[in-house]
Amino acid sequence: MASTQLSHHNFRPIPAVRLTSHRLSPTKPTTTRLPLQYFKNKSSTLKLKADQKHIKWAIGLSLVDQSPPKSTVDVERLVGFLYDDLPHLFDDQGIDRTAYDEVVKFRDPITKHDTISGYLFNITLLKTLFRPEFQLHWVKQTGPYEITTRWTMIMKFILLPWNPELVFTGTSIMGINPETGKFCSHVDFWDSIKKNDYFSLEGLLDVLKQLRIYKTPDLESPKYQILKRTANYEVRKYTPFIVVEANGDKLAGSTGFNDVTGYIFGKNSRSEKIPMTTPVFTQASDAELSKVSIQVVLPLEKDISSLPDPNQETISLRKVEGGIAAVLKFSGRATEEIVQEKEKALRDSLINDGLKPKTGCLFARYNDPGRTRSFVMRNEVLIWLEEFSLD
């Protein structure tokens, strides 16, 4: 939905140009009508063929006024309208079709429609097959008759038994018809691909890539919002969460795991059992990825002041303040070497994209390695970012 802007120019009709030609030999003047495509730029040199002879003509043409006609369109009002209307894209209320021309150009990398009916049919199809969740980040005027929106769309493909989650983020360019004051075009651009023109093979491959199987346990996890998804990583905004942690040895290691799980299984000052969550984190807090702790996330409704104290001095409770993290997702059994390779690949991608990654990283494991086949395991490497903007 779009990071490239479209220009909408309205050209006034140009009448046919009448040229009077005088042959080199004294004859009666003739009149020739030329189609518009012969005239380019402010001055054009035209070649005409007459009686086997080529005659050059120099024709001075005044520039055609290409500025849009005066309009009373209230673009600021339309910006506010989209803030209210687009969140209903996939709910029972739906968008207001009266805000669109009947002939409206809709394009994304793998879909196109040229009427409002086709556009609404596409929305209905997505609702039926994917159960989409649409998040609108911002709406801005980016031209005299152009508005840009930034969004995230998360979809679960319900026809496949593992219900894969597809994530798309990007921008949409909304063109406004200056005569009707309605939207006449809607063009989407995805952050995850480079070729956004229809039909994009890269876009189709991006969809197919996201259909792979990941097994995520039906357990509570830290809450986050996906702000952007590129070809190499996601950028997420995490809300605060609490962890119980102990010292570890390696990012892919399990040292300290029994201690932190012992706390939630009742080895605490109140012998209180706490529900299991996911993922299990290992965190490296130094640049060499050598200073490691292992963490289990506690249920989100828990408050750190009301939790029981650990029985062991090596166990501690800590509130993670959340923030913006870049995340690289992968499957398989993760060795120390693989995790560090993924961390380096993610860090290099962030630096290449002009972002500022913090020191260290988190490695998230969502599955029990003794009960889960390696090819469906969900693993993630997270790196906190110094700053991030969607502008």
From TrEMBL:
Coiled coil (UniProt feature): none
Pfam families per record: DUF2358, SOUL
InterPro entries xrefs: DUF2358, Reg_factor_effector_dom_sf, SOUL_heme-bd
Superkingdom as given in the UniProt entry: Eukaryota
Annotated family: Belongs to the HEBP family.
Protein name per UniProt: SOUL heme-binding family protein
Native source species: Quercus rubra (Northern red oak)
